[in-house]
């Protein structure tokens, strides 16, 4: 097994990228790695254990919450609290940010924002789902409980971000601002191994991913862009291929590897779009920029948006740089009345 690098080894090795690194971030990433393994184990037995199914409560966005969402939320929170590197967590599954009360946690310098189980409507049909995480340095003083401002930072302040995809194999993909690396889980060893080093998205791809069922409700520029994707221009490799899983992590992961664009625009029923800036869009935007792509709300860079609310949503266009530029052009050329 010479040459094989585990995620644990890689994290330690990369600590040198940060002058004066104290190892706190490395330890934090190790907590995420551990929680990912625990959640992965549970997801893989979901069918067997009959754990699937809505719990009966709705989350803050009024969507039915399923058991595995809650399970993942609890496991990630517990893993993050246990290692004392995090003073608080904000989760898509919780109305309010959670402050960790132990003194050791209050001495910690990081906060984590996460979507513990994204795409959870796909669990009971055996389709890939994911965990998305985003790490910031707190702005409030060390030794005090975290405050809202710690969680409401613009995405360009992220220290690290990543996702776990629970798919045909399980992978953990993350960045600390020095490129993007992907690790595939070997269940027989219980180890994530470096499988995708320095991931880069092609500048231009041939895949577009959007819930086209909402077409009639899209902004005019998005409708026109979809038609552009479907035009017969063989020298430009159009028509493009349409691929949409309905699981952001899985759609994003495929497009990252192959080149493409994922779009979740505003619609009549979701004027702000559906995806959450803090738990979904910012971490994916950090990753895609690190991989050479772009993320936009249609006009502005996602990472520059200044959040005002924890559960804020935003239209989201992410992927190959030339494709994101093109959709921005269409939105500018064809504004809605
Ligand atoms: P969730 O956080 O409730 O799981 O919703 C987010 C999911 C994304 O994974 C996915 O890209 C999107 O919602 C799909 O939405 P739609 O079903 O409207 O196409
Ligand atoms: Mg989600």
From TrEMBL:
Mg(2+) 2 binds at residues 115, 118, 280. It comes from the Bacteria. Binds 2 magnesium ions per subunit. PROSITE patterns: FBPASE (PS00124). It is found in: Cytoplasm. GO terms for molecular function: fructose 1,6-bisphosphate 1-phosphatase activity; magnesium ion binding. The keyword Acyltransferase does not apply. Keywords: Carbohydrate metabolism, Cytoplasm, Hydrolase, Magnesium, Metal-binding. GO terms for cellular component: cytosol. Its EC number is 3.1.3.11. CDD domains: FBPase. Residues 6-197 form the Fructose-1-6-bisphosphatase class I N-terminal domain. Residues 201-331 form the Fructose-1-6-bisphosphatase class 1 C-terminal domain. Homotetramer. This is Fructose-1,6-bisphosphatase class 1. Mg(2+) 1 binds at residues 92, 115, 117. Substrate binds at residues 118-121, 211, 244, 262-264, 274. Belongs to the FBPase class 1 family.
């Amino acid at each position: 097994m010479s040459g094989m690098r585990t995620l644990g080894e890689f994290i330690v090795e990369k600590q040198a990228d940060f002058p004066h690194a104290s190892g706190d971030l490395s330890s934090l990433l190790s907590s995420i790695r551990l929680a990912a393994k625990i959640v992965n184990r549970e997801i893989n037995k979901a069918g067997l254990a009959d754990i699937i199914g809505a719990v009966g409560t709705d989350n803050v966005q009024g969507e039915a919450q399923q058991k595995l969402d809650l399970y993942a939320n609890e496991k990630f929170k517990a893993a993050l609290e246990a290692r004392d590197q995090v003073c608080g967590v904000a989760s898509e599954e919780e109305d309010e940010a959670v402050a960790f009360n132990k003194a050791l946690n209050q001495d910690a310098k990081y906060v984590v924002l996460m979507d513990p189980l994204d795409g959870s409507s796909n669990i009971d049909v055996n389709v890939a789902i994911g965990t998305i995480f985003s790490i910031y340095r707190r702005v409030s003083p060390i030794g005090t409980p975290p405050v809202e401002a710690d969680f409401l930072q613009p995405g360009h302040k992220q220290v690290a971000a990543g996702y776990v995809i629970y798919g045909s194999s399980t992978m953990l993909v993350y960045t600390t601002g020095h490129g993007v690396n992907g690790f595939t889980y070997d269940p027989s060893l219980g180890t994530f191994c470096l499988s995708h080093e320095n991931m880069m998205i092609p500048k231009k791809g041939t895949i577009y991913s959007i819930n086209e069922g909402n077409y009639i409700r899209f902004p005019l520029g998005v409708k026109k862009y979809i038609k552009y994707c479907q035009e017969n221009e063989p020298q430009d490799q159009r028509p493009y291929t349409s691929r949409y899983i309905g699981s952001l992590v899985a759609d994003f992961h495929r497009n990252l590897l192959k080149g493409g664009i994922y779009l979740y625009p505003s619609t009549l029923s979701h004027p702000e779009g559906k995806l959450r800036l803090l738990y979904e869009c910012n971490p994916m935007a950090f990753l895609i920029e690190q991989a050479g792509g772009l993320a936009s709300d249609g006009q502005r860079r996602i990472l520059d948006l200044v959040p005002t609310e924890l559960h804020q949503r935003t239209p989201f266009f992410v992927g190959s740089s030339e494709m994101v530029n093109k959709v921005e052009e269409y939105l500018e050329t064809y504004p809605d009345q």
